[in-house]
Write a structure and sequence with these properties.
With about 325 residues, the chain is an alpha+beta fold. The chain is built from 9 helices and 11 strands. The protein binds zinc ion.
């Protein structure tokens, strides 16, 4: 097995960025698509991939630096041989080298921009961004500015990576630059947490951006699908006698009746007071759960009132509950 640093042509002190650049440069040069039918290119390409899989992963790189291999059996053998007799096995973790991990993503990036679809950057790059908005903004719709980090073809070398003699001075041979654009994203009313909206990033190398919307939760209004759920405290008198109370909704306050004899935990619905569905345009509902609040201050008059309230219960409210798990 060749020295992995040698394979990528970098020194042992090379940083992550340098390793990545070296990998990209070599992977492009030796990619089978660029060298059809060349067994040598295929072998080199595989070697480069394997070297990068190890050196781009801090954990595996450490292992490689320490043991000169990431082969589990080989490391275990060496570990056993250096462990003092009767000692505990040393702790080292090993993750499958076969897993592509971010290597796969990198390839999508690499060949999405430079490889199979042609080297001119004819395919607009796609990128992802995250927009974090407040609950109220999600309900009403908003417009936010989000940064989009994306890779664009190097304008100096046009993605080739070389400039006259040696690597391109602008991109260092990578053929691409990472660029951050700030784009304005229109978020429609009714958007939910995790929903995506499309936006476009302009300028040279314009393209589509998939924006994932993250909605910060509200401490009072809880959204489930298109419905809103809240908890509304009432007094014992209101629950017992019935009352008209005000219930806050995302559309503003609503006067709502609670019937006499309402139980704590009972749930009521306000039709159409939920979130407007993005696709159907139909509003969800607002559900409010009544919770009977108990006065905290105990006074002689309160004690007497409470005793009388206690007499109102015809039966033990806990009658019929199981006393244990049968
Ligand atoms: Zn360049």
């Amino acid at each position: 097995m060749r020295d992995l640093y040698e394979v990528l042509g970098v020194g042992r002190q090379a940083g992550a960025e340098e390793i990545k650049k070296a990998y990209r440069r070599l992977a492009r040069r030796h990619h089978p698509d660029v060298n059809p039918g060349s067994a040598e290119a295929e072998r080199r390409f595989k070697e480069i991939q394997e070297a990068y899989a190890v050196l781009s992963d801090p954990e595996k790189r450490r292992q490689y630096d320490q043991f000169g291999t990431v082969d589990e059996a080989e490391i275990a053998r060496r570990w056993r041989s250096r462990r003092p007799a009767g000692g505990q096995p040393g702790g080292f973790s090993f993750r499958d080298i076969g897993g592509m991990g971010d290597l796969g993503d990198l390839f999508g990036e690499l060949f999405g921009s430079f490889g199979r679809r042609g080297a001119t950057g004819a395919t607009p790059p796609t990128a992802e961004a995250i927009a974090e908005i407040d609950f109220a903004q999600a309900v009403r719709g908003t417009s936010v500015v989000v940064p989009v980090r994306r890779e664009v073809t190097c304008p100096q070398c046009g993605g080739a990576g070389s400039g006259g003699r040696g690597p391109c001075s602008r991109c260092g041979g990578a053929g691409a630059l990472v660029q951050t654009d700030r784009i304005r994203v229109k978020v429609p009313a009714g958007i939910g947490d995790g929903d995506r909206v499309r936006a476009t990033v302009g300028g040279r190398a314009a393209g589509e951006v998939a924006v994932v919307v993250r909605v910060r939760p509200d401490r009072f209004f809880e959204r489930r699908g298109d419905d809103i759920h809240t908890v509304v405290p009432v007094t014992f008198a209101e629950a017992y006698l019935g009352a008209e109370i005000e219930v806050g909704t995302i559309h503003g306050p609503v006067r709502a009746k609670i019937p006499p004899g309402t139980q704590s935990g009972q749930k009521f619905r306000l039709r159409g007071k939920g979130v407007r569905n993005l696709r159907t345009g139909v509003n969800g509902d607002h559900y409010y759960t009544v919770q009977i609040a108990v006065p905290r201050v105990v006074s002689p008059a309160g004690r007497e009132s409470a005793r009388r309230v206690g007499e109102l219960y015809g039966a033990d409210p806990r009658a019929g509950l199981p006393r244990s798990l049968d």
